[in-house]
Each structure stands twice: as structure tokens, then as C-alpha cells.
Design brief:
Layout (H helix, E strand, L loop, with lengths): L20 H14 L7 E5 L14 E4 L5 H11 L4 E7 H7 L1 H10 L3 E7 L34 H7 L4 E6 L3 H13 L4 E6 L11 H6 L1 E3 L9 H9 L4 E8 L11 H6 L10 H8 L4
Parallel strand pairs: 1-2, 1-3, 3-4, 4-6, 5-6, 7-8
Antiparallel strand pairs: 5-8
Helix pairs in contact: 1-6, 3-4, 5-8
Length: about 290
């Protein structure tokens, strides 16, 4: 499907053939195109890593920042101009490792951003060491005797911390992934979309086939407004639940609760500088 978000011209994509990132890129481009969001209104913020290269392969405004720092930048962009559609994108190491502290506080603030995490359970850019989501026993070039730490469960953490939208997708199922991404982008508030994806070079255990065998889609009996039911689905069973686990549409986003917006109703870039107060302050008074 040709989209307005396809980057024109010829360029190299620095992902290994068969990487799940290709399908995530395809799903995101097509979702934004289908939602008919003007390109000028979309900003993608990423950190460092293979997943964080995604916006470089799109015709879109983007900001590549420091490792693990996409979420505070995305929160700031949205606060400065709430009319923008803001997406924070990165890998499981970038978002849950280096960015783990920002992950917690983004949930607490509930900014109106979509947080897309490419979860291949390993660090890809830095040649395959264990990430926070690596399974116990996984042998890597650094963990030569196997990972000994329990894996981080981002969906459970997001739910218990009060995230207003929690979902999980699978990179190899683009049609279903597009539905999840569309719902997340339309949601007003912080939306976490954890996407299971194979790393064909550095993780030969958690392959596409492994993900298929160890996951399932939620059925129509699941109530996405019940956080306890969602948490039970995450914690129980040997298979990972796919789909929208939880959604709370009643929480006000971070930007709506900022005093400056409540008083003026205008985004930061549309306000006139208070030159009189600035001059008075510089002169030694206030």
C-alpha cells in the first residue's frame, strides 16, 4: 500500500532481512495514512537503537534523541503543541532499560502520546546482549552462561501504575497490528503498544514461530475496561495475550491539566512573550 508517509527516493534501510521492524514500519505508515492525519501534524520521537531508526524511513517530522530519552521529549512536544499527534518509538532496551525511569513517569503523567515499543527481547544495535525483557536462560555474547534475571513485564507494570491504554501486538500480523495502532493513536492519553518482533540475527530462540506458539489473541469476552481482568491475563498462563488489554477513556491527559492551558486555552507557541515582565526581571525586579 502506497502512503503519504513513504519516504521518497532510494535509500538504504539498515535492518537485517527478515527483521520484524519492517512490518512495524509498514503498519505504522499505513495506519497513519488510513487515519488521514496530515503529515505536518505528526511528530515521532525516538532514542537509540534499531527500532529507533524507524522515523528515519518515513516522510514525517521526527526527533532522534539520547538513549532512553524519547518519552520526556515526546511529552514536551505534546505539551508545547497539543494539536500534534506525537509518537514515542524505540526498542525494549531503549524504552524499558535506559528509559525505564521515564517509562514510569510517563504513565503517571498520562500525556496524550502513543508509546510504540519494538520488543525482540534482546539488544539488536549493540550486538545481542540481554535486554530487560530477555527470558531466563537466554545465552548471548555477554551472558555466556545464560540470563539469570527475571524478565521485566512492561504491561503488568503499566497496568499497576495506572496507564490509560495498554496493548500488545505482533509484528508478523500486520492487519491486527494496524487495528491496535489505530486505537492507540486515537486514544486521548498515554497509550503503550508493546510489539513482539523477531530479531533474526541475535535472538535465535524467540523467533517468529516461537512468538506464534507462545501468544494468543484476546476474544470478545475480554473486558478492556477491567484492569484486574487485564492483569490476570498478563500474569496467568504460558502464552502472551495480544490485543487491547486495557483502555480508560475517562482520564484527562497531562496537557489538559496544565494550569497554563486552563487559563489561556492556547498552546505555548501561540502565546505572546511577556516582554514587560521579562524587562522588569532583567532590571532586578519582578
Amino acid at each position: 500500500m502506497k502512503t503519504r508517509y513513504d519516504r521518497p527516493g532510494r535509500f538504504d534501510i539498515n535492518w537485517c532481512p527478515g527483521c520484524g521492524n519492517f512490518n512495524i514500519l509498514k503498519a505504522l505508515r499505513e495506519t497513519l495514512h488510513t487515519l488521514e492525519i496530515p503529515q505536518k501534524n505528526v511528530v515521532i520521537v525516538s532514542g537509540i537503537g534499531q527500532a529507533a531508526k524507524t522515523p528515519q524511513y518515513m516522510q514525517v517530522h521526527y526527533f532522534n534523541g539520547l538513549h532512553g530519552r524519547a518519552l520526556p521529549v515526546a511529552t514536551g512536544v505534546k505539551a508545547a503543541n497539543p494539536h500534534l499527534t506525537v509518537i514515542a518509538q524505540g526498542g525494549d532496551g531503549d524504552m524499558y532499560g535506559e528509559g525505564g525511569n521515564h517509562f514510569l513517569h510517563a504513565i503517571r503523567r498520562n500525556p496524550d502520546i502513543t508509546n510504540i515499543v519494538h520488543n525482540n527481547m534482546v539488544y539488536g544495535l549493540t550486538k545481542g546482549q540481554a535486554s530487560p525483557t530477555s527470558r531466563e536462560g537466554l545465552v548471548t555474547p555477554l551472558q555466556v552462561d545464560g540470563v539469570i534475571s527475571r524478565p521485566f513485564e512492561p504491561l503488568a507494570v503499566a497496568l499497576t501504575q495506572g496507564a490509560s491504554f495498554v496493548a500488545r501486538g505482533f509484528s508478523q500480523d500486520v492487519p491486527e497490528l494496524k487495528k491496535i495502532l489505530a486505537a492507540a493513536i486515537r486514544h486521548r492519553g498515554y497509550a503503550l503498544v508493546d510489539i513482539l518482533q523477531p530479531c533474526v540475527t541475535f535472538n535465535r530462540v524467540n523467533t517468529a514461530q516461537w512468538f506464534r506458539e507462545h501468544s494468543y489473541y484476546l476474544d470478545e469476552n475480554h473486558d478492556p475496561t477491567d484492569p484486574d481482568q487485564a492483569l490476570q491475563k498478563i500474569r496467568n498462563g504460558s502464552k502472551m495475550a495480544l490485543g487491547i488489554l486495557f483502555r480508560d477513556s475517562d482520564r484527562f491527559p497531562f496537557e489538559d491539566r496544565l494550569p497554563g492551558y486552563r487559563k489561556t486555552g492556547k498552546p505555548l507557541f501561540q502565546r505572546k512573550p511577556a516582554y514587560g515582565r521579562i524587562k522588569k526581571y532583567l532590571a532586578g525586579g519582578w
